[in-house]
C-alpha cells in the first residue's frame, strides 16, 4: 500500500471536509448528490473530495459516467492514536475536578489549581 499524498490531519482540518465525511459516513454517494448538501460549487466539492481521497479517507468508484464516493475510516486510526496520548492530561483534569467537587468546600480544601499543581509535582517525582 502506498502512503497517502495528503496528511490526514490536513485533510480533516477543513470544516467542509469534515462535513463531507459525515455525509458519506454510512453510504456511497455521487458527487452530484453530495454537492446538493453544500452552498459551494460542484467543482469546489470535487476538490475537497480529491483532498480526502489523497489522504485515503474516501474511495471513489466509477459507475457509468458517475463517480461515487464512500468513506474509508482506517486513516483516522492515526489521528486516534495521536489523540490517545493526550487522554492522560484530560483524565488528570477530570480527577482533579472530581476531587474538588466531592470535597466539602471548606477553606482547608485546596483549589483545583493547587490540586493540579500538586498532581503535576507528584508526576515529576
UniProtKB/TrEMBL annotation:
<dbReference type="InterPro" id="IPR036388">
    <property type="entry name" value="WH-like_DNA-bd_sf"/>
</dbReference>
<protein>
    <submittedName>
        <fullName>ArsR/SmtB family transcription factor</fullName>
    </submittedName>
</protein>
<dbReference type="Pfam" id="PF01022">
    <property type="entry name" value="HTH_5"/>
</dbReference>
<dbReference type="InterPro" id="IPR051081">
    <property type="entry name" value="HTH_MetalResp_TranReg"/>
</dbReference>
<feature type="region of interest" description="Disordered">
    <location>
        <begin position="102"/>
        <end position="125"/>
    </location>
</feature>
<dbReference type="InterPro" id="IPR001845">
    <property type="entry name" value="HTH_ArsR_DNA-bd_dom"/>
</dbReference>
<keyword id="KW-0804">Transcription</keyword>
<keyword id="KW-0238">DNA-binding</keyword>
<feature type="domain" description="HTH arsR-type">
    <location>
        <begin position="1"/>
        <end position="91"/>
    </location>
</feature>
<dbReference type="InterPro" id="IPR011991">
    <property type="entry name" value="ArsR-like_HTH"/>
</dbReference>
<dbReference type="InterPro" id="IPR036390">
    <property type="entry name" value="WH_DNA-bd_sf"/>
</dbReference>
<keyword id="KW-0805">Transcription regulation</keyword>
